[in-house]
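Quick start: what a row looks like.
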Amino acid sequence: MKKINKIIFLLTLTACLFSLGNTNAIAQNDSQQNRDVQKPSSLLVLNTSQNYTLQNATVLFKAVLDPSSQTSFVPIKTEQDQLGYTHQKLQQYYNGVKVEFGTLIVHAKSDVVESLSSEYYPIQEFDEIPAITNAQAFSKAVSHIGAQKYMWEFADAAEEMDNYQKPTGELVILPDFNSGRDVADVQSYKLAYKFDMFASNPISRGNLYIDAINGQALFYDAIIKHATSFGYLGEAQVIVETEADFCSRIESEEAMALVSGTAATRYSGSRSIETRLSGGSYILEDIGRDVYTRDALNQAPGNSYPYVSNYSQFTDNDNNWTSAEHNNSAKDDAALDAHWGAMMTYDYWQSQHNRDSYNGSGAQIRSYVHVDNNYDNAFWNGSVMSYGDGSSNGSEGNGYFDALTSIDVAAHEIGHAVTSFTANLAYQRESGGLNEGFSDIWGAAVEHFAKGNGSDTNPASTVWLIGDEIDRRSGSAALRSMSNPTSLGQPDTYGGTYWQNPNCGTPTNSNDYCGVHTNSGVLNYWYYLAVVGGSGTNDVGNAFNVSGVGMVKSSAIAYRTLNTYLSANSTFADARTAAIQSAKDLYGAGGAEEQAVTNAWHAVGVGAAYGAPSNYCASASTNTNDEYISRVQLGTIDNTSGAQFYSNFTSQSTDLNEGQGYTITVTPTWNGTVYAEGYAVWIDYNDDQDFDDAGELVWSKSASTNTPNSGSFTVPTGTAGTATRMRVSMKYNGVPTACETFTYGEVEDYTVNLGGSTADTQAPSNPTSLAASNTTQTTVDLSWNASTDNVGVTGYDVYQGASNLGTVTGTSAQITGLTASTAYSFSVRARDAAGNVSGASNTVNVTTSASQDTQAPSNPTSLVASNIAETTVDLSWNASSDNVGVTGYDVYQGASNLGTVTGTSSQITGLTASTAYTFSVRARDAAGNVSGDSNTVSFTTSAPAGDTQAPSVPVSLAASNVTQTTVDLSWNASTDNVGVTGYDVYQGASNLGTVTGTSTQITGLTASTAYTFSVRASDAAGNVSGASNVVSVTTAGSGGGPTVLHQGFFESGWDGWTDGGSDSSRYAGSRSSEGTYSIRLRDNTNSSTMTLGSFDVTSYNSIDVEFYFYAKSMENNEDFWVQFYNGSNWQTVATYARGTDFNNNTFYSATVNIDSGSYNFSSNAQFRFRNDASGNNDQVYIDAVTITGNSGAAFAPNSINILSNGVQGIVGDDDNAGFDFDDDFFLYPNPAQTVLNVKILDVSEKFTFRILNMLGQTVRNGNLSSTSIDVRDLQSGVYFIEINDGEELSTQRFIKN
C-alpha cells in the first residue's frame, strides 16, 4: 500500500492556503484548507510579513517540514540573480549521512524568505550503519558495470577528465525509487555507497549506487547520456603533440597570437572564429572563451580514451579556413562547426543568462572531432565533447548520419552539462525526460542565437528540428521535431500518443530509462508553443489556445525553471509550477508571459489553462500514468475521455429537475495495476462559485477497485434554477475534497442546467432476491437486488414483520439488537424522491444463534496415582466446576493427550516396566472451553517379575569425527522382550558408563593413541546383551593433521549411513570392493540414496571423500552423484558418468575434495551418494568410504582410478575393459594404523614399493613380498605409495593415523 507524498516535492502546482499558526503560506492559485503540515504545497510562497530570513530559515523548515531530530540541512551553494534574489541551496542529512537528492532551496529578497522549493525526504527511523565496507561495495560496482577497462587505470587520460579519480564510495541514504508506484511515492530508503563509475571499454559513465547492506546494485544515474559500445581502438600512425607537450610549449612561448579567422563550416556557412597562431600555423584554440577543438585521429573512445592525451591540432596556414582546404574525405570542416558551435554556446550562456560556461565558473569546453571511424554518435562524458564522423558520406540515403558536429547537437550535449550543474535532473522517468527536453531547448535556442534564422517570435522552421543537418537516413527529416513531436514518434501531450509510462519498473539503458528520449517531446512542444503560440485540441481532448511570447523570454523562463526551482527528481507537474513561478519572477504576475507559459502547459496536457476554471477553486491530480477517469454518465452527459490532471468539460451539460433523483456513473481506467480509488461529485446548487454549501456534495464513495461506480442523489428544491458547475473527482486511496491537489487520479468539470420540479407518481419496482447471511446471536446481514424507477430510487425501507426499521440508500443492511435463539422475518420496499413506495420484496425468515459459553471449567485438583504395576496405573482426581457443566477430562501423559474420560478416574494401560512417567488432567465443557492443568503426578512402573531374557546384541557400531581427544560412536538399537533401558559403552575391557540412546561422544582421549570400543545393551531386569562389534580408533596427532570423520566398510551393518529405501540395500557378494559387503544403489528415485550425518565441519579447510565403487548395467551417460549438505541445502560436488568416467564391471577408487572456499562448512554437514540411472537393473555398489577433515591446506585433488575388470561370469555383466596395470591395485584399511594391506589383481608379476611423504621424501621402500606393509612407526599424516612392476609405476594416496 502506498502512502501519498512520502517524498515532499515542493514543486507541484497546487491550489491551497497553507496555514501554520501565524504563518500565511500562499500558493499559486486559490485556496485549500486543512493541509497536513508534513505535506506542504509544492512551491511554498510565503507571506513576507512573517519575516522568515535566511538566518532563521530553520524555523521555517520546522514549521513546514517538521523534520526528525536526526535530520539536518547544510548549505552547499548560495547565488544571487539579476532580479536581486538570493537562492540558498541546502543538502539534507540524516545522522550525518547525506540523503541523496534531498535538497531545499530558499529564495529570499533583501534577506527575507519569499518562497521555498524542495525535494525533501521525511525519514523518521533509519539504520545508517553499513554491513559491508566501501571496498567490498566497490568490488560489487565493478562487477555490475562489467567493463574491460576503467578511466582510473589511465592516469594521463583521467587527468584530462577534470582530474577524475578512482571512486572510493560515498555513503548516502538513497530513496528507493522502486518501493512505490513512482518517484513521488517512495516508501522506503536504502543505505548505499555512491560511485562515479567511468568505464572506458566499453564506454559508459554514471553514478552507481550499491546497497551497503547486501551489495546489490540499486540505481544507475547516467552521466554519459548516449553511450555505445565500440569494438575497435584506433591506432594513429602519426606524430602528435601530447597534452604535456602542449602545456610545456604554452609555458615556454613568449607570446601567443590570438586572432579572428574565417571558417567555411560544414553546416553553417562562413563564420568568424577565434584561433591561435602557433609556430606559423593557426590552430582551433579560443583561449578567451577557453574553447579548444582537437583532432582525435579516428581513435575510438575505448580503454584509455586515447585521444584526450594523444591528439593532433587542426591547422591552417592563413587563418582562412576554406572548403577547398578542409571539405575533404576526412570531413575536416566538421571541426570548424564544432569549434564555432562551442564558441556560440559559450556566448549564448554568457550573454543571455549571465552564466560563465556550463558550470557557471568558466570551465573549459574541449571538443574532440574524428572520434573512431564511421561513428554515429556525439556525447558529453562529464568533462569533454566527443564527435563521431558518422557513417554517411554526406549524401541522402547513404549511411545514418554525417559528421555529428552541427550547432544544435553541440548545444544539446553541452546542455546536459548545464543541467548537471543546476537541477541535476536524474536520468530516469519524468526527470530524465525533462533532462533530454531541456537539452533540446538549448539546442534550438543556441542555433537561433547564433544564426539569427527567423525572428524572435517566429524562428525559422529548421530551428525546431534537432539534428536535421546531420541526418542522412532516407526519408528522415531529423532526430526530433519540437514543433511537431508526433511526426517523429514523440508525444506532444502528457499521457497522449507515443507517451511512455515513466513508471516502467527499474529504469535501464534497455528501456531508455523509462522513456527519457521519447517523453522529452512534451517539454519540447511546451517550449515551442510558449515561443510561437498555437491552438488546437490535444490528445486528451482539451482545447487550447496559446499566444507565444518569443524565444528570448521563453528561454529565460526555461533557464530560471531549471536553475532555480527544479531538483533531481522533478516531474512535468513540478516543471509547470516552476515555469509559472519563473514567469511571475521575471515579468510579473498575470502578464502575457505567465498566461503563455500556463496555457502552453495546458496544451501539452499538464494542468489547467490560465484562468480556468472560472472563479471556482482549482483541483487537479499531478499524475495520471496509472489511472484516470475514462467515462462520466449523467442524464445526457456520456463523456469518454483520456488521461488529464484536470479537464474542463463545461461545454457538455445535462438538465436536472428539482425534487427528482438521478444516478451518476464514473468509470475508471487503469493502465496496469488496479488500485483502489475514491470518488466524489459536487454540484454548485446556488451558483455561488464554490462547492462549500450544505448538500452540494451529492455523492461520494470510499476507495475500492470496483468499476464502474454509481451513486444516486436527489436535486433539492430552491436551487438557482440556472446553468451551474458540477465537479467529478477520482483520487487514489481516499475520498477527494473539492479544492485539493493530489497525486494520483483526475478531476473533471461539467455543466448542469437546473430546472423546476415535475410531478412524479410512478413507484419503483419491487426489490427482489432478498437474502439473509452472517446470522449471529444479535445481528443479521440483509441484501437484495436493486429496484428501478422512472426518475431514480432514493432508498429502501427495511421491515421486520410489519415494523419499518428505517431507510437505507444501498442494497444491503445489517440488522442489530436482535435476541439470541429468536425467529424473525424481514422484507424490503423501494422508494423514490417523490415519496412513491414499491410493493414488498420476498420475505426472508431468520433464527438467531444461541448464546455462547466462553468460560472454562476450574482446574482439576488432587490428582493421585495408585495400583502402579509393570504396565498399568490407576489415576484419580477431584472434580472441576463450570458455569454450564463439565463434560469430560483430558488425560495427558507428559504433553500427549491420551484421550477424554467423563468421570474423575482412569486406568492407564500399555505402559512399560521399570519406566518413569508423568501425568496430568484438564477439564472441558460442551463449548470446547478447556481448563488449566491439574497438579502433575510422577511415578516409575514396576520391574517385570522373572525377566531373564537379555536384549539382542547391538550391531553396526561405527566411529566418526575422530579428533585428538574425542570420538563419536553410534550403533543400531537392540531389541528386548520388555524393553532396552540403556547401553554400556566399553573402552577395551573398561565400562565407561551407560547411555540411553544409540550414540555417544567419548572425550578425554590422548592424541595419536589407538583405542578399541564396544557396546552392550541392558534392560530393567539387569539383563545384559553380548558385546557389539569392536571398532578401533586412533586419535588425531597433535600436529593438526587430517582428522578422520568417518569410515564405513559395511561389514557389520550400515556403519552410520541411512538407508534411502527400496532402491538402496546392503549387498553381500563379489561386487564389493573390500571384504564382503557394500551398499547397492539403483534407479533414480528419492530412495536411490545413502546418507551420512551430521558433522560439525566448521573447523576444517577442506574435506576428502574417498570411496570405492563398482557399476553394473549402467547405460551410456547414466551417472551417480556425491552430494554435500551445507547446512541449508544439498549440493552436488561430484558426478560420475558411465562412458566418460567409468565403465561397467570394473572396480574404481575415487576421491572428492570439498573446500571451504567453494562450499559452506556448517555445524550440521551431511554426505550423500545418489544414483541417477533409469531402472532397477542400473546399479552402483559403494564401498570403503573414508571421510577426512583437513585443517591445513587442501590435500588430494578430485580423482578416479581404475582398479580391476571386476568379477567374470556374472550374468548380465558387460562392458569389460581391458586389463591395465595403472592403478590396478587398492589399499585397505585407509587410513591405516599399524598395517597397510595392498591388494594387487595380477599376482604373477613381482613388485617393489616406495612410500613418500608430502614433501616428496622417501620414508619406506622394499619388495612387495606379501600383501601387508608395516606402517606403525610412520608419523600421522598423508602419504603416497608407489608400486613398480619393472615397466610401469602406479601411485595411490593413504592416511596414517
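That is the whole record. DSSP finds twelve helices and 79 strands in the chain. The chain has a mean pLDDT of 84.
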